[in-house]
Design brief:
The protein is of the alpha/beta class. The chain is built from 9 helices and 8 strands.
Amino acid sequence: MTQSIAKFIDHTLLSPTATDSDIRRICREAREYNFKAVCVAGSRLDLARELLTGSDILLAAVVGFPHGNASTEAKVCEATAYVKSGADELDVVLNTGWVRSGQWNLVARELEHLRECASEKTLKLILETCYLENAEKRKICRMALEAGWDFVKTSTGFGPGGATLADIRLMKDTVGDAMEIKASGGIRDYETAMKYLGAGATRIGASSGEAILRGEKKSNS
């Protein structure tokens, strides 16, 4: 890798108890370490945008988080509001219940409506892979690709399982270079992050960005 792993990291804070002080801290860290993006809840966008103004760090917000089972109309309302608040990227949770029920028409409709309402923004679809069969994962990846989404992503980090190398490889095998892949959920050190990048991930979602960079520094010393 010719550049620091920092440029692959979405520095993330989605804890329900996160305070303004916590948001200020992660934005300060993002500036200090030059992370690719900061990912926060929608109610924190205004503060994060203010703190990141003047930097090239992207601002991401989650939609339908953490379960993905809000109505499509509610997700579209969320996404529209966050775009107006300055989000560059939206990490949207898939409605897993629709997938498990075989309601693919509803999944397709939601993907299309969200793409329409955030036409100029980067959209990442969170699959929460621990709940899905491999055939379902493949089908969702293909649907996201067909709907013009930019990323598929492994996990919210709030489910019973996080990223796995097997899922990253499955996603890569399904979408190739036509979409990007975000590994998220349980990635806390440099060695693990590098394994995911090596398997095909192009972005790492983590709340342990500092620890990952300490590992990089140690590896390069």
